[in-house]
Amino acid sequence: CFNKMKKKIIQYKIFFFLLLFSTSLYSQNKAVLENLENIGAKMGQDTAMVNMYIRLGNKYANDQKSDSALLIVNKGLFLAKKLDYTYGIAELYALHGDIKVVQNELFEALGYYLNSVEYFDEGNFMRKLGDVLLVIGNIYITQANYPKALEYYQKGLVIADSLNLVKMIAYFYNNMGELYYKKVSQLFPVRIQ
Questions:
Q1: Closest C-alpha among 136, 140, 130, 145 to residue 98
Q2: Chain mean position to CA 38
Q3: For residue 107, what are the CA distances in angstroms to 99, 117, 129, 168?
Q4: 3-state secondary structure of 20
Q5: What are the backbone dihedrals phi and psi of residue 125, each rounded to the nearest 5 degrees, phi first?
Q6: Closest CA relative to residue 145, chosen from 134, 136, 157, 132
Q7: Contacts (Cβ under 8 Å, ≥6 apart) of 119
Q8: Distance between CA atoms of 73 and 94, rounded to whole angstroms?
Q9: Lowest mean pLDDT among 3-17, 126-140, 156-170
Q10: Is there a contact between 50 and 84 (Cβ–Cβ < 8 Å)?
Q11: Which DSSP state fits 85?
Q12: What whole-number distance in Å separates Cα of residue 40 and Cα of residue 18?
């Protein structure tokens, strides 16, 4: 039993090593993914593997490697759905949305964020749900869909208030203020003389 645990720890260490030091080109990333899948097969497909995909996807997304990040997110999402891992599904949908925002594909991003809302809500991950509602409101504001933006800001504000998340409350009020400013600016445009 102890040797099994030790072997599993070593496998996780190898996985983390590959996770942290895999910042090469796309074709090399594909090879890294195949190695991760081999290690994952040995470790067993569980929620820890999904969490690794989330971390790796975030790393690539933060490094502006959208194609690699999407490949990782899709693999993680497939596994999370197979395991019925609500948090993993929600987090990967949100990450997919983040990547689509960076690619300036807001309509697609919105779809992924809305999917993540469903799973964050189902799993009662309220802090994460509040974060995503804020982003959804921001997308609607960029599309000048002020009623929808306000709807999502208000939903998020209720969550932030119930959890006493002071910074998040401030973000919601700030964005709602911007929304009202834009709305009023459209109704009463200022003429420069």
A1: 136
A2: 25
A3: 12, 16, 19, 24
A4: helix
A5: -95, 75
A6: 136
A7: 86, 87, 89, 90, 93
A8: 10
A9: 3-17
A10: no
A11: -
A12: 12
- The three state secondary structure string of 38-78 is HHHHHHCCCHHHHHHHHHHHHHHHHCCCHHHHHHHHHHHHH
Q: Which two tokens stand for residue 69?
A: 């990040």
Name which of 173, 94, 83 is nearest 128 in CA terms: 94
Span 38-79, pLDDT tens digits = 655 555 668 888 998 999 999 988 888 889 899 999 999 999
The token duo for 144 is: 């000048």
Contact yes or no for 92/57 (Cβ under 8 A): yes
For residues 48-76, b (16+ Cβ closer than 10 Å) or e, as one string? ebbbbbbebbbbbbeeebeebbbbbbebb
What one-letter code names the amino acid at 131?
Answer: D
Which of 77, 26, 7 minimizes the C-alpha distance to 49? 77
Residue 113: burial class (beta carbons within 10 Å; 0-12, 13-18, 19+)? buried
Residue type, 20: L
Per the listing, tokens 């999904």 go with: 50
Tokens standing for 165?
A: 């998340």
